[in-house]
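Researcher: Next sequence.
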Amino acid sequence: MAFFRKDDDSAIKAKESEEAFEALVKTHKNFILKTAYQTAHHYVSESDDEWSVALIAFSEAVRTYDKSKGSFKGFAAMVIRRRLIDYYNKESKHQNEQAVGPDTLSAELTDNPSSVQLEVSSKISGEAMTVFRGSTQIKDEIEALSGVLAFYEISFFDLPAVSPKAGKTKNNCAIVIRTVLKDDGLLTYVRGKRKLPIKEICKNCEVPRNILENHRKYIIAGIEILSREYPLLAEYLKFVDKGQK
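Model: Next structure:
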């Protein structure tokens, strides 16, 4: 019983600390793989799509866990199984791969992790592109970003719904992202408080308050992507540096 209590406490701490989350993933890697194996009924390695789905599900379990839900490992196993079952159900409906454009973060996506990873991993060009399965780097970036976003209670798969569609709104989001990235104080506030300093941002740039409120998740994701080492994901936010209007 004490063993489970230790896991429960570690999961609660992982909500509040990126280092604690990374440590929790490291100590539970075999548990995640075993749960994926038991659901998939075949061997699962870290190079498989099932691992990506299971890891994102584990992050979701950390983000949503409280002790009233029982032991953390039991809760996490349930979330992983559900997400893998969802993945298999949706994968069977999306057998045909399609060409996609480079604007994936602001495009309308499904919540199917494999589909998202395939779309985002498309090579950058000015034309429509063919999806490829060869690179695991984009999967690694999505998994790492998902862990970071979990501290803000944001899922990677929240982004399509909150991405700006209109050009003016997209430009305003870019202005906010640039403003925070250029100010160490604002960046420290965002990461420490896990929210946007709306009043301070509004003082620094002429962006309507409702933009910050309605697109908070997208803006935070943009800040984290461009302030960390996510070169492939950063390709989809080139407009921020260019200041496109």
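Model: The CA atoms of residues 109 and 160 lie 6 Å apart. Confidence is low (pLDDT under 50) at residues 95-135.
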